[in-house]
Amino acid sequence: MTTPLALSSLRRYVRHGTLPQLAALEATVRLGSATRAADALCIAQPTLSGHLRKLGDALDVRLFELRGKRLVPTAAALALVQASGEVSAALERCEAALRPHRDDERLGAGLASDARA
User: Fold this and answer.
1) How far, in Å, CA of 34 to CA of 98, rounded?
2) How many CB atoms lie within 10 A of CB 53?
3) How far apart are CA 59 and CA 47, in angstroms?
4) Could you report the per-residue pLDDT of 25-60, keeping only the tens digit for each?
5) Cys staple from 77: which of 11, 63, 83, 107, with CB 3.0 to 4.6 Å?
């Protein structure tokens, strides 16, 4: 069961559309470049930069430091990437748990339409 505190924390992430932002962060950290991350995610580089800025603002943390032309992830960014991996794993478990139900529902819908014919 979700506690009121957990719901309060969850609202912050839902309100700010965090999944695309987390994907932008993960790709940028993994690839070491906003340009390469934007290319990998098939989005414009300014869009990716906006995702990173909004994520940092929403969480009130600095995600990168600029050293020369290199983006260097902060400790907060690295912690967030690790946590986002856990979120991704949880979403994969949800998908796996729902997969058989989706097949059952499609089969049931097909049977219902067959019965009407």
Assistant:
1) 34
2) 13
3) 18
4) 999 999 999 999 999 999 999 999 999 999 999 899
5) 63
Q: For residue range 15-27, list pLDDT tens digits in order.
A: 656 889 999 999 9
First to last CA, the chain: 44
pLDDT digits over 70-88, tens only?
Answer: 889 999 999 999 998 888 8
**Which residue do the tokens 């949880």 mark?**
90
Q: Where are the domains of the chain?
A: 4-83
Instruction: State which fold the 4-83 domain adopts.
Output: Arc Repressor Mutant, subunit A (1.10.10)
Give the start-end residues of each E strand in 34-117: 64-67, 70-73
Within 10 angstroms of residue 64's Cβ, the number of other Cβ atoms is 18
Closest CA to 63 of 9, 114, 24, 117: 24
